[in-house]
Q: What sequence folds into this?
């Protein structure tokens, strides 16, 4: 390798290292690595959001769901989890407003639902589904930690109860409670500053050990 090539290679590596240094759990590549087959960490996040114990049976990251239509839109779920009751969860992280558009959550919900039933299954067998968006900003500007989106019957002001649920997590929330500490951990770039060990261990491995950091650098 010539001097120019070596210099360029060194600069590229420095640039990649700088990118990795600035990563937090709002980065979908890092998040996917930290939560890959990581049932305890997934249970932690879901249990905090729902305020009750969630028992996760399986978890996949960057779970690609292809459209059956030629030229149709494919999606990859950042975290796709299934609990002991068969409820499905799609947990997404998003930093910009375009990616957090309300119609995106609708699409994700529809794609998950479309894969739940097999031929001949009754519609009542459809399990509940949750699309949970960790948005780096306050989507609705009200300062609340969570925003729950449900279908309602307008004339009776009652829930439709079709089992489809959307939750936006306010990435700007800084409350002195579990959800506030969870959001703070998602913003953290250093494992030492994190509250939850299950998340800190993952961040430490992929950002602060040679083996884990090499994996992140390859994806960057």
A:
């Amino acid at each position: 390798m010539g001097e120019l090539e070596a210099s360029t290679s060194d600069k590229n590596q420095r640039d990649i290292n700088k990118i990795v240094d600035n990563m937090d759990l709002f980065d979908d590549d890092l998040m996917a690595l930290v939560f890959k087959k990581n049932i305890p960490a997934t249970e932690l996040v879901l249990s905090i959001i729902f305020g009750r114990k969630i028992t996760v049976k399986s978890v996949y990251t960057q779970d690609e769901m292809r459209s059956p239509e030629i030229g149709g839109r494919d999606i990859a779920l950042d975290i796709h989890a299934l609990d002991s009751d068969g409820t499905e969860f799609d947990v997404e992280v998003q930093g910009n407003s375009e990616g957090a558009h309300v119609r995106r959550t609708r699409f994700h919900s529809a794609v998950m639902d479309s894969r739940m039933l097999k031929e001949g299954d009754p519609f009542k067998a459809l399990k509940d589904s949750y699309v949970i968006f960790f948005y780096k900003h306050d989507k609705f500007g009200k300062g609340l930690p969570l925003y729950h989106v449900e279908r309602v019957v307008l004339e009776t002001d009652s829930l439709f109860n079709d089992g489809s649920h959307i939750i936006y997590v306010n990435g700007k929330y800084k409350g002195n409670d579990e959800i506030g500490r969870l959001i703070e951990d998602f913003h953290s770039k250093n494992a030492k500053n994190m509250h939850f060990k299950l998340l800190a261990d993952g961040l430490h491995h992929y950002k602060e050990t040679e083996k884990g950091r090499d994996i992140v650098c390859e994806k960057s």
